[in-house]
Amino acid sequence: MSFALQRNTITLQGSAQIVAEYFQYAVNNILYQRGVYPQETFDVAKKYGCNLWLNNDEGLTKYLHAVLQQTKVWLEQGKLKQLVLVITEADTKEVLERWTFDINTNRDVLEGKGPLPDKPEKEITQEIQAIMRQISASVSFLPLLESRCLIDILVYTDSMDAVPEEWEDSDPRSIDNAEMVALRGFSTKVHAVKTMVTYKQQDDVL
């Protein structure tokens, strides 16, 4: 019984690892489903009870690893507010899609007040699985990306005394007259994550 209870107890560091791992799989599967990178640059991975995809391009893998390592640190510090995957047209630099992950941190856990929350790992996995299925189904309503695209990742945090030198300021990369679709969220009871996609409307074709 004590072993089961221990597994259900969510620490700040454990929650940060869960959320960072979610970002890794969510971003990779968005890139796969949206065709931003060729299908042959992805390997299948079994995660959350689903067949998901991880990109094996060395440059992209290195970039995502660096981003996610830093966001994990900010998650543990309770500083991360939002992560945004931006997809832009390569030639025009026009923003076509913004995949936004809003993060809310349990302040009591962050400040060490009260007991650590309990939540079964299976329940968290099921919540994330539902989001991954929605990402896979997003191709049914998102406009086809017909041109070569690039990506960028924006991170919004609480004010900090020092920012790593490899990070730089950016404009919001917003989309005018955009459509927005909210996906499911998940919670570890330490971090709550809401996911949504904003995309450029297609011009009506007569």
UniProtKB/TrEMBL annotation:
Keywords: Cell cycle, Cell division, Mitosis, Nucleus
Taxonomy of the source species: Eukaryota, Viridiplantae, Chlorophyta, core chlorophytes, Chlorophyceae
PROSITE patterns found in the cross-reference section: HORMA
Compartments (UniProt record): Nucleus
Principal location class: nucleus
Sequence ranges assigned to domain HORMA in this UniProt record: 13-197
Family statement drawn from the similarity comment of this UniProt entry: Belongs to the MAD2 family.
Name of this protein: Mitotic spindle assembly checkpoint protein
Alphabetical list of InterPro entries matching this protein: HORMA_dom, HORMA_dom_sf, Mad2-like
Signal peptide range in chain numbering: none
SUPFAM superfamilies assigned: The spindle assembly checkpoint protein mad2
Ranges in coiled-coil conformation: none
